[in-house]
Amino acid sequence: MAKTKKAPRPKAETPKGFRDYFGVEVTERAEMLRKIAGVYHRYGFDALETSAVETVEALGKFLPDVDRPNEGVFAWQEFDEDDKGDWMALRYDLTAPLARVYAQYRNDLPTPYRRYAMGPVWRNEKPGPGRYRQFYQCDADTVGTASMAADAEICAMLADTLEEVGIPRGDYLIRVNNRKVLNGVLEVMGLDEGDQRDAVLRTIDKFDKVGEEGVRALLTEGRLDASGAYIDGVGLTHAQAKPVLAFLTSKSDDAAETLANLRDAVGESAMGADGVQELEAIADLLAAQGYGPDRIVIDPSVVRGLGYYTGPVYEAELTFEIFDDKGRKRQFGSVAGGGRYDDLVKRFTGQAVPATGVSIGVDRLLAALREKGRIGGSVEGPVVVTVMDRDRMAEYQAMVAELRSAGIRAEVYLGNPKNFGNQMKYADRRGSPVAVIAGSDEFDAGKVQIKDLVLGAQIAENATLEEWKERPSQFEVPRDQLVAKVREILDGQDG
Amino acid sequence: MAKTKKAPRPKAETPKGFRDYFGVEVTERAEMLRKIAGVYHRYGFDALETSAVETVEALGKFLPDVDRPNEGVFAWQEFDEDDKGDWMALRYDLTAPLARVYAQYRNDLPTPYRRYAMGPVWRNEKPGPGRYRQFYQCDADTVGTASMAADAEICAMLADTLEEVGIPRGDYLIRVNNRKVLNGVLEVMGLDEGDQRDAVLRTIDKFDKVGEEGVRALLTEGRLDASGAYIDGVGLTHAQAKPVLAFLTSKSDDAAETLANLRDAVGESAMGADGVQELEAIADLLAAQGYGPDRIVIDPSVVRGLGYYTGPVYEAELTFEIFDDKGRKRQFGSVAGGGRYDDLVKRFTGQAVPATGVSIGVDRLLAALREKGRIGGSVEGPVVVTVMDRDRMAEYQAMVAELRSAGIRAEVYLGNPKNFGNQMKYADRRGSPVAVIAGSDEFDAGKVQIKDLVLGAQIAENATLEEWKERPSQFEVPRDQLVAKVREILDGQDG
């Protein structure tokens, strides 16, 4: 028999690695996602919402020879008597559920299937500063077509989306590259696989940091880094390194010129030529729709995450400058990325299905909108109707009802009304723009006091009603002008 | 060493008890929740979004003497070397996270704290028809005030919410009762606790079904039911049963009369009198805001879920009729319910905090809107631009870009364009209102064919382009009138 013990009080704590979102944090994200969904809808993408839970089998994160699914996911075993229930897990992205859904419903879904999905995903990882174990993703994918028009469409949609949520043209750039081009370059270098190939790929990743000459040195004999340490080179000859450098420096302001440079870099490689042709097709399609290089560019330096993709890759970069933690200016950077991948459904059906898609970093984009002052400006606090006389509660309620009917956010103070200062502190905490005050004097005279809290000085803790009334930011108006006066003050605050 | 074996293909299946939501199922719910959030916002309620995951300790579902949390929740143990990690679980409602948040942030939150929350919750229960293990909840609660104004406010907000989402006045009724009134009735009957009290409560629950005389018989000597079986009574005398019957039949069209009847029914009970007074306060507050008995009524027959609540309880009932599974007419019924509860935060802090709140049954309300024809009418399929000539893809893309710029949902067919019939089948599957057709003839002539698919007959599988062109629902217009003509057809379809 188990011992009976008094349970201690539970701790009121957000679980480690998770967080709570309050007020505008919730509504601003919802509003941004709604705008994004509007653009996706206009492009013919359909919403899909799968459950948070998938079988570990379908997620593909199950290692068949260990008892416990690997650490990346939150997983548990379904209870049954023999302890042989299925392993279930929280989805870690929105792509794995799409693969499952497409395989499951492929006979009923249109082909190609354009779908978007928005929602939280979960990662069973060590949390760190700014790294949470639950966060939002926002994906759009087209499944079932190899046409470059699908890739071009997603790039155009991404540009439209950024403008729709409030990133002005000129402050973003969609950069497009193709995995096959780099593969072609490596092919002509005789680096189809192996350690040296991996070393070359790692070196290419440093292009943004060390530039052309740095990469040239690192691909060949090595170089001294800024700290004076000698970094060994990959050991290529300068002739071998040439196609890589041609690839990395191929970008021109003119798309046709960039493509010509790339064609040179891939030389005889059929795969490389294929990649250049795909880029050309995308560039033509985008040009026909009026998406010029001020919005979307061919840029061979897009290398991030290339390993996952099989053809075109694209990235949305915000080009305006912000100050980093150390006060240095830098570009805001990437807020979305994606590309073409082919084995989405193969795990389930054995058939390869081509697909291409993009994922927006929801928190990154929200942070960008905050940087640009597009959101986070106003707290949208309610008008607070204070309570001077408990027995008049019905009359205070009638006031807020009138304000709400006029579309004004309003509430009656429902705490203990005894200390008026507490009511004003409450209004302050609520971010209220206006307080309404009416005691028996006002009711007898058919009047009401309306206080502009934005104009007014900061709330003193123990101010008396009389002190408040003397402030110039307070107005006495006839009761039937309550809504009009509040509206006038709110309009003035907006201006 | 583990044996190496080839993993079989995973099954592409929605996990048991879960479901996938497609297209309008997602967007209609999102739109309804957005409208609800708008009303809640206007009433001064702030959004709160907690993570899906809570510690089992905070959820309060952990049985301290067993290794495994009880079955109602999906739970797992955090991994650490000693297997002593915390137990985590998916939230099973939105109230338990509110309790945790209020306890955790009580010094920073305004008091009272009005918050709303919307999102999925999870139940580890045996799934059944229409019963899922993940579903949406939509809650609004006011924490930290015992004022009846908080309860009245939520009733008014509920009425406004139903009208906002599309339930017209007259098709719903908010019914308000008070737990203390029934307790008072039982107190004057000498039934403070025990088996007989429970039997009386069960009998009260049957009032809707068996009526006044039926309840009278069941409370006393028993009765024959419809099938001819004799149902034993609770064994009260007719004098004892009188207050219960007075309570159950106290409802009048006039709130004052209902309250007077209830005052009679509770007799000398202080608790009962308290309950009646609370109902009276709510009725007065609502009357002052113009919420009459056509929207909100005092109704002592609201008994469901009374056990959980400590004071006022309220329920939103949709009064229009639908046909049930057996073709019988019945009222649509309840879509929301709530009430006052006091020990929300006590588990964490030891202090009782008064709270009152409502939960809307999201799926029920969506079903009601579907019944009323408010949603689900149009599939919102995109205009499909078909592909007659693969090499003209850029020109087809330019067409959809123009349509989208005009706010029209549009897409290019991106499947294999070889079989035109397949393109029209695709358009059918997408619910497209309009198809755009342009081959070399049209391009040479600067024209485009526009087909009204709603007007047109159902799509024949192997129709040729020529057959399609002969249909009267197809129009040839100059290329530069594409958007105007499509708009004209869409407007005609709406009308």
From TrEMBL, chains A, B:
- Superkingdom of origin: Bacteria
Query: So which residues are the signal peptide here?
Result: none
State a single Pfam family of this protein. Answer: HGTP_anticodon
Q: Which chain regions cross the lipid bilayer?
A: none
Q: Which PANTHER family match?
A: HISTIDINE--TRNA LIGASE, HISTIDYL-TRNA SYNTHETASE
Subunit and partners: Homodimer.
Q: What is this protein called?
A: Histidine--tRNA ligase
Source organism of the structure: Roseovarius atlanticus
